[in-house]
Design brief:
With about 200 residues, this protein is an all-alpha fold. It has one domain. The chain contains ten helices and no strands. Helix 3 packs antiparallel against helix 9. The termini are far apart.
Length: about 200
């Protein structure tokens, strides 16, 4: 049983570790100390739902609707292109007075962006529903399968809360508008790179 949980944790953590739109957003909000708890809870909770669906056999739905992955890919790429452009525009304008003063976007605006970055990202479905779901097939007994899924869910919570609150360690570096400009430029191009990868 312990082995199944450990495998689930290692699998979930390794999949989520790669830089992506969701991770970059959590990092940015963590640096700004902007609604970190609720943001991390939304991201980890969303992963938990998708992992549960993957372990319980969501792959059958994709077999019934083969166009679903393609639709999600186009939608996700479009969102990433727009969001990347917004970050690059913000860097170009360089208006970080509110950010440096500790002011930030509202809770619902922050959670709305996070939800879009999560649920419109085809990679999230590939990792949680596809890969984690496929690996869970190795466990025949229901208890082992559930413990495997719980391990993957725990990895998501550890990662997001670690990233969100750990970002505060970099806060002293982010005390200038120039630093925020550099971060936004990096995030903008990362979003576009991910969109390109999706479309190609």
């Amino acid at each position: 049983m312990f082995g199944a949980g450990l495998t689930g944790f290692a699998t979930g953590f390794s999949l989520i570790l790669a830089i992506g739109a969701q991770n970059a957003f959590v990092l940015r909000q963590g640096l700004a100390r902007n609604h970190v708890f609720w943001l991390c809870l939304l991201c980890a909770g969303s992963d938990a739902l998708l992992i549960a669906a993957g372990v319980l056999g969501f792959g059958a739905i994709v077999e019934l609707y083969p166009l679903l992955p393609q639709i999600m890919t186009w939608g996700g790429a479009a969102f990433l292109i727009v969001y990347g452009a917004m970050r690059l525009w913000a860097a170009y304008k360089g208006e970080y007075a509110m950010r440096l003063a500790g002011k930030s976007a509202g809770l619902w605006a922050t959670l709305g962006t996070a939800a879009a970055l999560t649920w419109l990202n085809p990679h999230v479905y590939l990792d949680t529903l596809g890969l984690i779901g496929a690996i869970s097939v190795e466990y025949v007994s229901r208890p082992e399968k559930l413990i495997f899924g719980a391990g993957a869910v725990l990895a998501s919570f550890v990662f997001f809360f670690g990233l969100g609150y750990g970002a505060r360690l970099l806060a002293p570096v982010m005390q200038s508008a120039k630093a925020w400009q550099v971060l936004d430029v990096i995030i903008g191009f990362v979003m576009w790179a991910i969109a390109y990868k999706l479309l190609s």
